[in-house]
Amino acid sequence: LNPSMTSQGVRQSHCLSGLGVRVAVMAAVAVGGSDADSTTTDIGGGVMMPRVNLGTCCGSDPKIGVPDWFTVGGVGVDSAWDYSNQPVLGAGLVASGKHRSEYFITSKVPAGDHVPGGPSILGACDTNPNASLAYVKDSLKLLGLAQLDLVLIHSSCVNFVPPVADPAASDNALWEGLIQAKKMGLTRAIGVSNFGVAQLESLKGSGVPPAVNQIPLSIVPFWGSTVGHDDALLTYCADHTIVPQSYGSLRGCPFTDARLVGIAAAHRVTPSQACMRWVLQRGAVLAAGTGSNSTTAPQYSRENIGIFDFALTAAEMGVLNSINGTAM
Prior knowledge:
Elements: E1 40-42, E2 48-50, E3 52-55, H1 62-71, E4 76-78, H2 86-96, E5 104-109, H3 129-143, E6 150-153, H4 167-183, E7 190-193, H5 197-202, E8 212-216, H6 231-239, E9 243-247, H7 258-266, H8 271-281, E10 285-288, H9 297-305, H10 314-322
Parallel strand pairs: 3-4, 3-10, 4-5, 5-6, 6-7, 7-8, 8-9, 9-10
Antiparallel strand pairs: 1-2
Helix pairs in contact: 1-2, 1-9, 3-4, 7-8
């Protein structure tokens, strides 16, 4: 599962400007969206996470994306052990010349349908806390860092193929490994990705709630889903102080839908920006890539970071919410 998948090839560029408007969005329309105009959010313990993060998966090359992202003022970078490009990302961090405190790095440990294990590495869904701890340590080595800002379990072991005997036990073992990693100072915060309500409930016995749940969250469905946004899951996260993070906000962006196009034009922004702003006003942070084309990546970086200068009205949020599964 790929937290930074985007549809960069179908982005549309327009003149960009902002209204500088602050909007109070009704809870029924935007879950937790009251701080959507802030560039960071507190994910617990005073750890401030950027609300917009550069994706480095699935066609978004960190070698291309990181320099432009930092140039436009981007801070957060989303990565994963199983994207197999962390050495490239690490080299980009060094080349940037930035101090460690000037960027926020997320990594993920493989789980779910990832990494069945082998002679030299533990299986991702073995019932063994040392598995996730080992992946955290290896990510640090690959990135050339001493500490990560956030580490996520990439997917619940309920998705593992072939099925594991007790997915909840495997999830809890992975979670215990991340708890240990945080205690050891290897990461500042820990969370999950692609966890539903049942899987989140299974972690309650640890007494340590996830700081973040990175999930597919978009205006319309993608990858065969029937809906773009699971509102019940968003409500659960809000009720349990778990920050949702969107992936696929652009893969599930209905760029040519007349309703979206009209709303974007009203704010003099691109449909891509309206889709990402919608995510923020749903109370989520996001990861979005900028592709692998050095010609278009700078513009995509500017678009991604430029979604704090306007706000969608409650009526516009209602319209975009209603598109869920009905793009035209």
